[in-house]
Amino acid sequence: MSHTPGVRQAQKLKTRQALLDAALGLLEEQSLSSLGLREVTRAAGVAPTAFYRHFHSTADLGVALVEEALGSLRPMIRPTVSPDEDSDERIARAVELTERHVSAHPAHVRFVARERHGGVQPVREAIREQLAAFAEEVTAELTKDPVSAGWSDADLRMLAGLYVDQMLITASMFLEVLEAPEEERRRAADTATRRMRLISVGRRHWLD
Prior knowledge:
Elements: H1 5-26, H2 37-44, H3 48-51, H4 58-71, H5 78-81, H6 87-104, H7 106-115, H8 121-142, H9 153-176, H10 182-205
Helix pairs in contact: 1-2, 4-7, 4-8, 6-9, 6-10, 7-9, 8-9, 9-10
């Protein structure tokens, strides 16, 4: 008996996710440039030919991992710059959200941190495009804030880039202390908070 289209689609999505999860697990120990197609399919428990029903190459799979990894980071960017809350409250919430995200998705964070400057060009470009999209979203939020009155578009984009870069740095900091004692993790959070506050202070006095 043939499967209905809905069942086939669900199975296809399940296989695709299995390939992504298998690759992410393998990438804990190696870079994407050294990852083999057969390694991935063996870890996912599917035939090598099944790979090409979902991805053109391991680079294409890497781009999908970038979208999966950075897509889940996007909700954490806007609270950092939204004018709806006090600056210190925004910063504290952003740092807390970042720490929780790293704890929940360490493999994704490691993958992006490694491949941002790695040897697979389509993946580097995908990361750069995602971060540029984040910066555009942050720029749009900054324009709503009265603190940004009088800022040029170039300066707003520069500030947005600083916020996005600092969020990535913060994620990397938490990744380094993931298994560390509580005191060390608190020091990392304090450092991240102070750096974000420094950006906010500079923002308030930029046009002075």
